[in-house]
Design brief:
Blueprint (H helix, E strand, L loop, with lengths): L7 H12 L3 E2 H8 L3 H13 L3 E6 L2 E6 L5 H10 L2 H13 L1 E3 H8 L3 H13 L3 E6 L2 E6 L2 H10 L7 H14 L1
Antiparallel strand pairs: 1-3, 2-3, 4-6, 5-6
Helix pairs in contact: 4-8
């Protein structure tokens, strides 16, 4: 592994991904000031050598330290990297379960946008959906696991709501 990271640019990429798991190529390039071509080459190289793992999500590929996360955790982090799904998760962490209408009011997006993101989160097995009378009710599949991932990676999200949640969660666990 050390010979793979002997090159300064690879070491910078790897260290960035350790601190910011689940980010996509363009964000890595933007933050590190690297061209897409060069970055793609180094990411593929490190992936072939077993240092990194990537997952395709729609039209984006997210990158992770290969040893750091299980598949379910990578799915959760991938969801947390998106603004609307992160807001949905923050709401569910606070209230355990919410109806579609409650989520829409809390997140502040259109019905179609909320439906789209809830569908993706259900497909990625981050959420559970049950019925209460004629309403859909949503909850996190692994409330504790999501909370731990959020707290462990809080610095990489740069979100005040995440920081407030992490502070409270840690205070309650102490």
């Amino acid at each position: 592994m050390t010979e793979v990271l002997d090159l300064d640019s690879r070491r910078r990429i790897y260290e960035f991904l350790e601190a910011n798991p689940g980010v996509h190529l363009r964000l890595i390039g933007k933050v590190l000031g690297m061209s897409t071509g060069m970055l793609s080459y180094h990411l593929r190289y490190m992936e072939r050598r077993g240092l990194l793992r990537s997952e395709e999500e729609g039209h984006r590929r997210r990158y992770f330290d290969a040893r750091a996360f299980a598949e379910a955790q990578r799915k959760i982090i991938g969801v947390l990297r998106q603004d609307v799904p992160r807001k949905i998760i923050m709401e569910l962490l606070g209230y355990q379960e919410r109806t579609f209408a409650e989520l829409r009011a809390a997140v502040g997006v259109s019905k179609s946008t909320l439906s789209y993101h809830l569908k993706k989160m259900l497909e990625r097995e981050v959420l559970l959906r049950t019925r209460r009378d004629r309403e859909s009710v949503f909850a996190l599949r692994d409330h504790e696991g999501v909370a731990k991932l959020l707290v462990q990676n809080r610095k990489s999200f740069r979100d005040d709501a995440v920081n407030r949640f992490a502070d409270n969660w840690l205070r309650l666990r102490a």
